[in-house]
Amino acid sequence: MTLLRTCSAGALALTLLSHGTALAQDSDPHLALEAVESPDSLAWVNRENAKTLPVLSGDPRFAGLQAEALTILSARDRIAAPNFIGTSVFNFWQDATHVRGIWRRTTLASYKTVSPVWETVLDLDALAKAEGKNWIWKGADCRPKTHDRCLINLSNGGKDAVEVREFDLTTRTFVEGGFRLPEGKQNVEWLDADTLILTRDWGPGTTTDSGYGMVIKTLKRGQALSDAVEVFRGQKSDVSARPNVLRDAAGNRVVLIDRATDFFHTERNVWTDGKVVPLAIPQRAGIAGLLNGRLIVELNEDGLGAKAGSIIAVTPDAGLATSLIFAPSSVQAVDQVTVTDRTVVAAIYDNVRGGVFTFKPAGATWTKSTLPGLPNASVSLGSHSDEGDQIFYSVEGFTTPTQLKLADAVSGASETVKALSAQFEGGNLEVEQKVATSKDGTKVPYFLIHPKGHKHDGSNPTLLHAYGGFNLSKLPVYDPLIGKLWLEKGGSYAVANIRGGGEFGPAWHEAALKANRQRAFDDYYAVAEDMIAKKITSPRHLGAYGRSNGGLLMGVALTQRPDLWNAVVVESPLLDMIRYTVLPAGASWIGEYGDPAIPAERAWIEAYSPYQNLKPGVKYPLAYITTSTKDDRVHPGHARKFAARLDDLKVDNLYFENTDGGHANGADPKSNARRWALHYTYLSRQLMDH
């Protein structure tokens, strides 16, 4: 259970296309379903929900699964994820009593005890009731050094778009006449105690094709939005422009102006003395922080004398003096990097097994040390103190409950301050790492979690999960929901580390970009085929699950290899890859998938786009397709149109659309418990019933 980591037109048409052909590339009979909240669209959603809910919620297993999920999601003995603000520890907490949640604080000494004494700072349930809004917490950004004022991000229904309000931590009230920014997709930073630097929708001509702000302005206390002063203007074809204000313990401040030209390439500039000056660092790089006046940079391409995947330190000037902090081997990958007052801390994986390392400057070199962890585990960096070198980090494994540790990154001293109690019976489970061979000969590792001594007779109900995109890794995390709702019931669970992810560094991701996307899909099939060949499971008992980009993977798995599965959970998916760039926020992902407006790129996108590749006469497994009306990252039209196309073809499917929750698809513990109960009821029906 990872604690600390933090996508109308016309009348509704239900036209049946001619037999013998796939969906014509320029024909879209379900375009009207893209109108998110039109009466016709919502009527269609209600009809689909009315068909699906009785089937799944009427199953005798549903109530028990929902109760178990709610117990886990609202348990009071789960670890309260800590966040340092000043010398205090803050936490956002949801349970059965606090459905929307409370933002609360305590002292570090109290937090480390078995029963911390918490003070409620903001009650979201009370705020939502008082204002008649479905407020969902989206975090807070507090003023540096003084820590007395914060910018609170509130989402109505779970959307990425937020309203921003200034909040006083001393009085625990919103600041009368303070900063207040209306709803929008926005990035806001404190420039000083009375000035913000931000990007948002300022009006016509100020947002990109992706729907994000491209104009950066400064806003002083008491100043109207219309009077904000422009600092930088990007281009409409960009993904976004955003500010990034970095500070270090030595008193240095660097204001970066980032212009994301696509999802992975960012042109960086330094704003100094009222001027925007280009900074010639590689465009495929992440900035982790500032240490002794130097930028700490994670490279995702070769540059500045270091290879892709390395961590380097760079002076933020024309000279770009660099020093190498860490260079990975071929099986290593940097997953997270953060900066304390005197150190760089990194979560680094070796063959998909994590460790936490510190790097301290020692003249022209860096001294590497290791913080205590666990074997065969996942690691996650958490909050670090605003002043000093204390840092929280967690370690966990598929069957090893999460341990939260607090370390001094300079001395290396570490203590376990919290340990999650076992949320499911894991003593009879075995974790193995296996390797499949993909179509092009690439070795693809995968984890398999199953009951000890299970027979290899093809009868094991097995759920195969993967993501395969955006340089994101699937790691060995402790997930009580999978454990309780699936593994405890006799199911097996596999996680495939397919290309497109970041498990082996930037090259592993780039291997499945754009024209090479099929490699990620082939890797996924290779893992499924490996388990079938070894009789770990069989197509009758094998299910597939993925969401977001993983939902695209599911749509492709359903259309390209329907023979491999008896269940496919397609959650919050991208499915119409011909129109994805015109649906918010699809244009931002052209760097990952390519641009269907370019004929050559459209050709290879069209070859796999699930919506266009559903065909009559094919025996498809019963799919469960689910999304959220409030998802303003991956448009719900993808899932809606895919289900409608299956209906056209008279292919049975189950469709459910949650009316709240945003892209995370779970606005509160109760709705999230229902979500997971629906998932596992469906999987149990398809894979466990004979």
TrEMBL record:
Signal peptide: 1-24
Domain Peptidase S9A N-terminal: 27-418
GO molecular function annotations of the record: oligopeptidase activity; serine-type endopeptidase activity
Domain Peptidase S9 prolyl oligopeptidase catalytic: start-end pairs: 486-687
Coiled coil: none
GO BP term (any one): proteolysis
Record Pfam families: Peptidase_S9, Peptidase_S9_N
Record bears the keyword Nucleotidyltransferase: no
Alphabetized InterPro entries for the sequence: AB_hydrolase_fold, Pept_S9A_N, Peptidase_S9_cat, Peptidase_S9A, Prolyl_oligopep/macrocyclase
Gene Ontology cellular component annotations, sorted alphabetically: cytosol
Top-level division of the source organism's lineage: Bacteria
Protein name (record): Prolyl oligopeptidase
